[in-house]
Amino acid sequence: MDLHCFVTPEWEPRIRPASPKRDWMDATPEAYAYRCLPLDIGNAHGWEILSPCSFAAVWDGGPAASSVHIDLSQATQAPFVPVSLFGAGILTFHIEAIFRTPPDWNLWASGPPNSPKDGIAPLAGIIETDWSPYTFTMNWKFTRPDQVVRFEEGEPFCFFFPVPRGAIQQFEPRILPISSDPELAAQYQAWSESRLEFHREMERNPPTDPSDRWQKLYYRGVCPDGRSGSETHEVKLRIKPFVKSD
């Protein structure tokens, strides 16, 4: 399927496949946070747009657009710099492009997942990119006043990926006792018992190799009895970069 980014004449897009890496995950002992496959996949499940400049911003707590103060003194080559447009402590990045997805596909856009930033939080939006001729903005909301927030040049400020329109409304959510699915209940019980025994074994005989300190069942995509959980199980995403064309 095609995903096109039609850029305006002066905008130089800095778009890349999202990185699975996070500084805080690197800093965990033995980088154990990367053992959580859902985190890894979530980090990399889309594309990132990078800041065109380094800058600092602070919100004084007021409701007006002028209450957000942006220091662009370090923005050496910075067309389309961030602005304060909406008020209410919101910082805005203009994305001077129109994205096109296949029919009935939207773009989900927000900040990089699992990447907390002190004093400010990304807002999320869904854009109907199969028909809209309009650009969109990426917005961040300050969470408290008088907290200076920095973005460095090349730092991701937007993260996006396609989602099928209307799919979420087709689900019929229900809450059921696990006993209503005997096979699932048996698998869960087997996993629960094996996990408990695994932890006991780790206490009795601590392994020397850090990779042996976790079970890896979900990571390997296998059920407690060793059967494959899914033929399409993913441990790494290979997202294609945007290719520039005339």
TrEMBL record:
This is DUF6065 family protein. Pfam families: DUF6065. InterPro entries: DUF6065.
